[in-house]
Predict the 3D structure of the following.
Amino acid sequence: MTYSDNEIIEGIRQHDKAVLQVFYKMHFGSIHHFIIQNGGDEQEAKDVYQDAVIVLYEKIKGNNLQLSSSLKTFLYSICRNLWLKQLERKEKFTGKIEEQEEFIHVEEEVRDWDAEKIQYLYMKDAMAKLGEPCKSLITDFYINDLNMQTMTEKFGYTNADNTKNQKYKCMNRLKRYFFELYKK
């Protein structure tokens, strides 16, 4: 079964899991081929594709998707940029992504959005690298909006100043990990 781009977009807006599954399966093969042909492996292809589908999903759900091409082209552009950025980090790609865009059409909105999404992915990787208890401290303070006293009790620190000091050290470590990844 296949769907038109408009049916896919509407299906995602309506939380239709069947549409998302079909869309996911429809385009993975070409992305998989692209990643494998350009120095990647099976897991890297899956990871890049998953990240790109999440981006597309978030843009559709947030009503921020304005296509000037097909969904397939849009998804391919996101995957391509994510993969080139990953190769750049691994030092397997020595050019600049911007130079490659002259040869393969990439929509303006993908270029603009990609930097933000890539920063998000680097932060996600930096958080994963951070480990516990720092990950939980930062998540509880910035995401779950817990105050220092509640966090002191939760983590067993002697007072709120110690908790604040630990959070500060964790943030510095997170920043270091983020910039190590981002500057590569």
In short: Confidence is low (pLDDT under 50) at residues 93-113.
